[in-house]
Amino acid sequence: MKETPDLYGAYPRLEDYQLAELGRLGDRRAAGAGEVLYRAGDLPDELLVVLEGQVVVLEDLGSHRRMIAVHGPRRFLGEMGLFTGQPLFLTAEAAEPGEVLAVPVDRLRELVARDQPLADLILRSFLVRRSLQLSLGAGFAVIGSRFSADARRIREFAARNRLPHRWIDLEHDADAERLIRELGIERQDTPVVIWRGDVLRNPDNDQLAAAVGLKRAAPATAAYDLVVVGAGPAGLAAGVYAASEGLATVVLDGIATGGQAGTSSRIENYLGFPAGISGAELADRAVAQAKRFGADLAVPAAVTGLERRGGDHVVRLESGEELQARAVLVASGARYRRLDIPGLDRLGASSVYYAATELEANLCRRDPVVVVGGGNSAGQASVFLADRAARVRLVVRGPELGASMSKYLADRIEATPSIEVLLHSEVRELRGDSTLAWVVIEDLGSHRRRLAPAGALFVFIGSDPHVDWLGGQVELDDRRFVLTGNQLPGARKLLESSRPGVFAAGDVRSGSVKRVAAAVGDGALAVRLVHEYLTHT
Known about the structure:
The chain is an alpha/beta fold.
């Protein structure tokens, strides 16, 4: 078989010295033709390197198998889960008799800790492989209607958690009807998820997470030095720094790692990435880093309450579990606001989005779209969609584009012919039958209204802090952001809330700068303050 080319650094070949280093840590193993080296759904516990022969990597859904890549000598196998603890989504089989080198994951971690070039090579290749899997839809399959709210929920959960999956649309995929007949599924039973030959009928997020290995048993311990609520940039940064300093740390999030930043197609003003970096890749790198230092991550793990018990804090989970902590970091971020306009309730499930990733772009590819908002999120979405949609109309309430948007974004938007900017305007109504067809836009100066054709509406009009779970345990400002430090009476540490031992970082903190770099700085600073607090209590 012809070997798959090294696409974007996804399938590099190891140098002599790298192969020799790995050879001292692993065991050589014969592989017979057709032998399964690992299966989709397995938890990876070793890095496999092809020494002789060829290995084929497959998507295996039981009745359906699809070849993804073919690898020869000096190439290593595996996926991002080797660093994050996530299960494998693809199956590897020996295409012919050969030999592989198996390096246990604990020995691999010891090696990459002292060999930075090798660590960078493996991590970068796994990140690119995950991107390729996502673009190919190589993982589990979701069958359903694009008009189904549950199908959208499943797809959004998978996309936010960067779970590779293939969408099979009942309305537009010619094979959909045949496939559900073969599986013995009625159309009204959809959406369904096909994974490892099993059929999950309309699973909720917890059930899907458990099925694909994302959600496992309760965190390793019920008592921690620090519980971090929220896995956005601030929470992940705190997880990395706290674990690296030896604090028993767990990071919790009810939806996915990455927070709002995780849905950004490209962050171009983050220090150290001159070509920019996607929010998803930044989150994946942070998760791998936190895991390497020993932090626990639990996703999805929705937090429902906080209370004081004895001298410690108790964090309650939606599952009924309780985690005890000496200190808590509130990094639960903010949630995007929704428009209150006619047509939203009827068309929202099929046509209105609050993130602009490949998932959303694929649903409206080559359609005209409308983006609402004047900040960086709206700007990034407009630039990203301009290469995928027929036309982008950006609706901004303010009189100028650069008022609340970074200049580089405003300049890029103005230089992009396929983006039309409508200043001093607001969306008034959505129109369409089962899906969005038209958006009514009003000029706030003249009050004239126009109909803009649109297959999708993207909304980025600010956000509200996610603090309901705090239940009044800490003081908030008049916009419900957490007050900290000198915003409170008495002597307080910089990021400490009104309750001793409870700190706040990132977008949820009153007065914070709503930027990724600022959130990361908040998370790092919070750990130093937590360390000081724990030392003196």
